[in-house]
Amino acid sequence: MLKMNDDRRIIHFINENDSKKRIVGIFLFFFLSCNVFASQLYVGAASVSILPPLPVTLAGQRVLRIAKDAQTPLTANIIALENKDKNRKTVKTVWVSVDLIMITPDLESHIRKQVEKEIPGLDVDKIIISAIHTHTAPATRHGFWESKDPNVTNSKEAVAFISDKIAKGIKQSWDNLGPASMTWGLGHASIAINRRATYADGSASMYGQTNTPKFRGLEGPSPDDVNVLFFWNNQDQLIATVVNVPCPAQTVEHRTSVNADYWYPVRQSLRKRFGDQLVVLGTIGAAGDQSPHAMIENAAEKRMRDLQHIDRLHQLGNRVVEAVEDVYDIVKNDRHSDIKMDQKVEKLQLPMSPVSIKAYKTAKKHLEKLESDDQKTKYRLQRWIVKNRSIVDRYEHRKANFPTTVHVLRLGDVAVCTSRFELFTKYGQQIKARSKAVQTINIELAGEGTYLPTPEAVKGRGYSANWVSNHVGPEAGEILVEHIVNIIDQMWLN
Questions:
Q1: How far apart are CA 331 and CA 229, in angstroms?
Q2: Are residues 7 and 65 in the same domain?
Q3: Number of domain units in the chain
Q4: How far apart are CA 317 and CA 47, in angstroms?
Q5: pLDDT value for 374
Q6: Are 13 and 150 members of one domain?
Q7: Global pTM?
Q8: d(CA 481, CA 493)
């Protein structure tokens, strides 16, 4: 039986030699063109290089690193989406994933301003931009990782270069908009590992020692969900996929070369199967307490890699690809061009974590020491100067609120929810458990990330849960979860 939302079958009827079948196809074409049935999804995709001139300063580690070479390409992967329903209502958005550690306000602002000039009528506030959190990509946060060498691309130059490339990529994807269909599915792969070790005294430590009698276990869950979306054009060509993995891309975080981490082998393998036209938009789920580094079975993991003759990067890439291909084989025939699409963008003021007098005095003492140290030390520890100065500023000016923006996008039975934070996994689980959507995808680092820890993490302290590494805490996490769940509730009532 002919499905009314299957454009491919209608085109087949129109091209038939049988005059009766051709008449049926033409009738159906005009019937759908008049919006008698429902909506039509339009999709455009693009992938653009964002690597600025080398050498360039890298973001993500405690010391300054300068990359003189690139081991992989760095890209921004983009999907433009438009949906026209039977009431002539149009929903438009653009979805961008960038091979960076985070999306800084300066970079985000540059992109939106440039796109506003290029695409009249597009609400640039609805552009979703997130990072894969690779620690081997150019620094775009001013003052954190800066070189004094004028021959090294600095953060301001990187922002100008990258924002221009992304804006052009968005325009390219928008110009490529055409009738499309999509589907979605849930797979599983062992990628993420909770990186916070807990101990008998109640303390916790990121990447803490586990081969000790004091070790009591990892602090939270290690999720294995892989959420996938697929998009086809009306020539039956798979043009884009969104792959959501709850693990930051920092397998090779200590290197001094540019690298897109495990997403590079993922893209290579998927394009090998589905064609070079495929845009692979990689996103990170709620994973503030996760990493790709083994915490317990290190020796066993290494033995398995040695026997396979692969490194950790490709081991993880293979696992992601296998999950995506498994999902594809299950859902590939359940395509939809007639979907419900909606998007809400809301700004929140979350309560900042209070800075105690003890924390203030400690930060001020560290800051005075860092700023009075010799130039070589200051040069290597710029990020800690910025972090401690932020703590002092929060205490002295009694800052109470922390601004943030959340996006909730509905695509058929799928809810896509963003936050700017390195959001601990349990918050993502709460959103998914309470969501009215069939499938819910959390995306972190849709902005300049700071950690958002759980109550258990704050109690255990350690990096990612202390005053040095976050601006907001569990109270803000509860508010964020409630707000996102409420938006989803409203969308699924309509």
A1: 10
A2: no
A3: 3
A4: 19
A5: 62
A6: no
A7: 0.89
A8: 19
